[in-house]
Design a protein that fits this description.
single chain, 6-stranded mixed beta sheet, alpha/beta, Spore Coat Polysaccharide Biosynthesis Protein SpsA, Chain A, 2 domains, globular
Length: 229
């Protein structure tokens, strides 16, 4: 098994929910659930857990959950426009400079509180099983399907099905499609240094159930997640 560098990105700024990464969820800060899952996975994989934040309150919350926060994200990587790739590479460089050994990056966003250690381990296993993979990542089945009920417009403004012949009449007959749920990304460091995540030619999906694929973006999402804890 590879040695992972777990990165939990948690900048202070957020628009939909102020201080979202430490917003209360069932009496605990949101980031606590991701830290719990990372610590449990770390018991099986080893490696280093790095909380990437520019915010002292988030750092304090993380340390209260059992993580030492030695890394501080620079201001230029803490804006709304800062890219994920640059943020991850900066954290990788910080780890490299301190002699922290890792073979992969496991990106765990705090906005996926229902992801658990088993999901992390399944994604690491999928990555380990494919030496050519640039990344393994969690997905969930999509309710909408480009072969069945998603449409585009022609040049003259008329609708046509996004993919396929448009003759399917039963959902169960169309190819299965997925959406990326943002819960776990296991990334090959060399691939990330060569190209953005969206350009990776080989991405391996690991399916998670839709009921645990809630991504926290609004107060309503917090309420839905709390019902499933």
């Amino acid at each position: 098994m590879n040695i992972p560098l777990y990165i939990i990105p948690a900048r202070g700024g957020s628009k939909g929910i102020p201080h979202k990464n430490i917003a209360p969820l069932a009496g605990r800060p949101l980031i606590a659930y991701t830290i719990d899952a990372a610590l449990e996975a770390q018991q099986q994989t080893g490696g280093y857990i790095l909380v990437s934040t520019d915010d002292d309150n988030i750092a304090a919350a993380a340390e209260n959950c059992g993580i030492k926060v030695g890394y501080h994200r620079p201001p230029e990587l803490s804006t709304d426009t800062a890219g994920s790739r640059e943020t991850i590479i900066h954290a990788m460089d910080w780890a490299d400079a301190r002699g922290i050994v890792f073979d992969s990056v496991v990106l765990l966003q705090p906005t996926s509180p229902l992801r658990n250690a088993a999901d992390i381990m399944a994604t690491i296993k999928a990555y380990d099983n494919d030496p050519q993979a640039d990344m393994a990542l969690t997905v969930t089945p999509s309710d909408d399907n480009p072969y069945y009920n998603l449409f585009e417009t022609d040049a003259d403004g008329a609708l046509h099905i996004c993919k396929g012949h448009g003759l399917y009449t039963r959902r169960q007959d169309v190819p299965k499609v997925f959406r990326i749920n943002g819960a776990v990304y296991v990334i090959r460091p060399s691939s990330l240094r060569q190209m953005p995540l969206g350009e990776f030619p080989r991405r391996i999906p690991v399916e998670m159930p839709s009921e645990r694929s809630i991504d926290i973006d609004s107060p309503d999402d917090l309420q839905r997640a709390e019902k499933r804890l």
